[in-house]
Structures are given as C-alpha cells and as structure tokens.
Specification:
The protein is an alpha/beta fold and about 210 residues long. It contains 8 helices and 7 strands, in the order ββααβαβαβααβααβ.
Length: about 210
C-alpha cells in the first residue's frame, strides 16, 4: 500500500539565490519525521548547491508544524521558509482562508510522474510504502501476517491473541492516517471495508508513534 500525500511548500522571497551573493542567509524548515529530510540528505544536497544559504531543520509533528508557523506568522516573528507536513486538513483550510497560499506551478513538474500533480497547485511530496510489522517474539510463525488478508484471517481465528494489540494510525484523529486509509480503501473497495469491519474493534488507534 502506498500513500500519496499532497503538500505545498512556500519560500520566503527574501532569500537571495544569486551565486554572486555569498553572504550567509538563514533558512528554516519545520519537518515531520521523514528520514530523507531529518537524515540531512536533502539539507546537505541543498547546501552543496547553495553554500551561501544556511539551513536549519526542526523535527515536529504535522499538527505542530502548522501551529508553530501560525503563531510565529501571527506575531510577526521570523517564521519558516518551508513547511513539510502531512496535515491535509490544515493545508485545505489555507486554501479557503485568503492570503495564505499563492498560485504556484513548479518548474520541475515535467520531470515528475503524472500522479505527482493530482490537482492544480497540489504537489505530491512522496510515495512511500506502508508495511505491516509484528513482534516475532510474541507471534508464532503461523500467525505472522503476510498482508492485510492474512492479518484479518488470523485475528478473526484468534481474537484473544489480537484484540487490542493491533495498532495503526487513527484516521479520525490523524491526517496521515486518513491519507493512508483513504489510499487503501480507494484501492481495495468493498474488500477493504470488509476487512476493516472484521478487525476494526480490535484496533487500537494512535495519533503518532505510540500515542
């Protein structure tokens, strides 16, 4: 199962990108937990291309990204240049509220796959695999899921083993979870809904890692 996550980015116009200007400029990015970004691959590549711009990253949850930016922008403080967030509801609200989004078309669109631009002004940030993990110390080999179908079959056959011990993002409280479940249901249709009906009451919904 893959998630397609719409995301917009905004860049402050006061960052100079001329190669003739070597004065350090500060740029900041509030990011959720995406290893490609927080692992410094993206900042390192950007720094190599634009060595006169200093990059600072903060690893925050999707909702916190927006709350912090809104508070800073509202008080007139120096705010982030780029926001990376899976909070689709917050991005959608910016589209309704005037003055928060600009009509932007990326010059890189021609180099990206078709699904990366599902709607005008909406660009997909990444397409990442979502996997099922299990505790091999607790599950015997015959109960270790190989996919959603086998997970449902095993859970229905042994509810005492799985009830309350299946966890995933809560689509009602987490926008990332909403995107993930929407993608799954959109792909599987009635089969997906039937799977969820059978194990839905066994699931412990989370809003983040273990919360």
């Amino acid at each position: 199962m893959r998630k397609r996550l719409p995301c917009r980015t905004t860049i402050r116009p006061n960052i100079r990108t001329s190669s003739k200007d070597r004065a350090p400029r500060r740029a900041s990015s509030f990011t959720p937990t995406w290893p490609t970004i927080t692992g410094h691959r993206l900042p390192a590549g950007f720094k190599a291309q634009y060595p006169w711009i200093n990059v600072e990253t903060l690893d925050l949850g999707s909702g916190t990204v927006h709350s912090r930016w809104e508070a800073e922008a509202g008080s007139g403080s120096r705010s982030a240049d780029i926001l990376v967030s899976g909070a689709n509801d917050r991005w959608a609200s910016y589209g309704v509220e005037g003055g928060k989004l600009l009509d932007y078309k990326s010059p890189e669109l021609a180099k990206l796959p078709d699904f990366s631009n599902p709607y005008p002004g909406v660009n997909v940030l990444s397409a990442d695999p979502l996997v099922i993990t299990y505790n091999a110390a607790l599950l015997p080999e015959e109960q270790r899921p190989t996919g959603m179908k086998s997970l449902v079959e095993d859970a229905v056959a042994a509810p005492e083993m799985f009830d309350g011990k299946i966890t995933t993002y809560d689509a009602a409280r987490n926008s990332f979870g909403l995107a993930a479940w929407y993608s799954y249901m959109n792909k599987k249709g009635e089969e997906g809904w039937n799977n969820l009906r059978q194990i839905g009451k066994m699931i412990r919904g989370e809003t983040s890692g273990g919360r």
